[in-house]
Design brief:
The chain is α/β, with parallel strands linked by helices. The protein folds into two domains: 2-100 and 300-334, 3-Layer(aba) Sandwich (Rossmann fold); 102-292, Rossmann fold. The chain is 37% helix and 14% strand. A seven-stranded parallel beta sheet has the order 8-7-6-9-10-11-12, with helices on both faces. The radius of gyration is 21 Å and the shape is globular. It starts with a strand and ends with a helix. It binds 1,4-dihydronicotinamide adenine dinucleotide. 1,4-dihydronicotinamide adenine dinucleotide binds at residues 77-78, 99, 102, 105, 150-156, 173-176, 204-207, 210-211, 232-234, 258-259, 295, 297-298.
């Protein structure tokens, strides 16, 4: 099948070309993001393959449908960037990669927790400058601390297993609790209870209209003073301005982000020679207790190989009229 891949980097070409050796789809790699002005690149392609910060709103989907595209093969687990109702109206099929490696994101989540707790980001810079002072590097034992996990799907469940290994007490909030997590000792509770009790709160629910700005001023107010907040889910789960205020007041003791609500203009690019125009993002970078990575949670060898493999299998299934097990339908967001 002829596929236009958007927002591609050399590492995408490497993983997709390796996975395509046996399948022989015709892959065309485009560097630009997909939006209304670049949609024309997909003219005549029956399938396109976008990434997380590509724009898939109604106008873009209309343009794609007009040009003959029939399949949107997302190379991501998240599908919050797709207007699924518009896709349904336009008879565009949408597929995703639901589980490429929950371990990749879960392990990155724990890396952020450990780094922030033991101030590894600060220690690294200090030691390189010959500063071996320990002031400001005091951490706490994870053992015995309470970790609140919001969303115990594939990624959240792995986070639960890892944190259980550290000897943490585990609380969770999820409208569909997971029995394996319960078996591990995870106690499902209300969001309010989770906020009030957790020393560390980590977000692993999808971004939907219901979870948009889940962590706002009201939620932060309920949390313990000095809480560590980690977001490797989606940027807009957090109200950035409310979080900045909570960092300034000391309510948040540490913040780890792999995603940011306005990341589309920043992440995945080398902007080191430019002035960052986003004042909220710039403010976040000034705090010593904030650690931000640029949406790299998924970026492991295993995950990249599986993303490519599953995306190409989705393409083959669609092309050959087989059941598309990874299809995403509007009904899933309307529930
Ligand atoms: P999943 O679909 O397996 O799990 C999501 C869980 O969230 C489900 O158990 C669901 O019941 C729960 N949930 C739904 N609404 C909720 C709510 N209002 N409050 C609490 N829980 C709720 O998804 P998976 O694979 O675990 O991924 C989770 C999220 O992680 C994705 O939606 C995506 O946004 C993000 N992600 C981030 C990556 C990164 O590189 N940083 C890579 C992959 C995913």
């Amino acid at each position: 099948m002829r596929v236009a891949l958007f927002s591609t980097k050399p590492y995408d070409q490497t993983s997709f070309q390796a996975a395509n050796a046996a399948r022989r789809h015709e892959l065309v790699f485009f560097e630009p993001h997909l939006n209304l002005s670049t949609a024309a690149l997909a003219a005549g392609f029956p399938a396109i393959c976008p990434f997380v910060n590509d724009q898939l709103d109604r106008p873009v989907l209309e343009a794609l449908a007009r040009q003959g595209t029939r399949l949107i093969a997302l190379r991501s687990a998240g599908f919050n960037h797709v207007d699924l109702i518009a896709a349904r109206d336009l008879r565009l099929t949408v597929a995703r990669v639901p589980a490429y490696s929950p371990h990749a994101v879960a392990e990155h989540t724990v890396a952020l927790m450990l780094s922030l707790n033991r101030k590894i980001h600060r220690a690294y810079a200090r030691v390189r400058e010959g500063n071996f002072a320990l002031e400001g590097l005091l951490g706490f034992d994870l053992n015995g601390r309470t970790v609140g996990i919001i969303g115990t799907g594939k990624i959240g469940a792995v986070v639960a297993r890892i944190m259980n290994g550290f000897g943490c007490r585990l609380l969770a909030y999820d409208p569909s609790p997971d029995e394996a997590c319960r078996g591990l000792g995870v106690r499902y509770t209300s969001l309010t209870d989770l906020y009030e009790q957790s020393h560390i709160i980590t977000l692993h629910c999808p971004l939907t209209p219901k979870t948009h700005h889940l962590i706002d001023a009201t939620a932060l107010e309920r949390m313990r003073s000095g809480v560590m907040l980690i977001n490797t889910g989606r940027g807009a789960l957090i109200d950035t301005q409310a979080v900045i205020a909570a960092l300034k007041s000391g309510k948040i003791g540490a913040l780890g982000l792999d995603v940011y609500e306005e990341e589309a203009d920043l992440f995945f690019e080398d902007l080191s020679n430019r002035v960052i125009q986003d004042d909220f993002f710039s403010r976040l970078l000034t705090f010593p207790n904030v650690l931000i990575t640029g949406h790299q949670g998924f970026f492991t060898q295993e995950a990249m190989a599986r993303i490519a493999e599953t995306t190409l299998r989705n393409l083959s299934d669609f092309e050959q009229g087989r059941a598309l097990i990874n299809e995403v339908r509007a009904e899933q967001v309307l529930r």
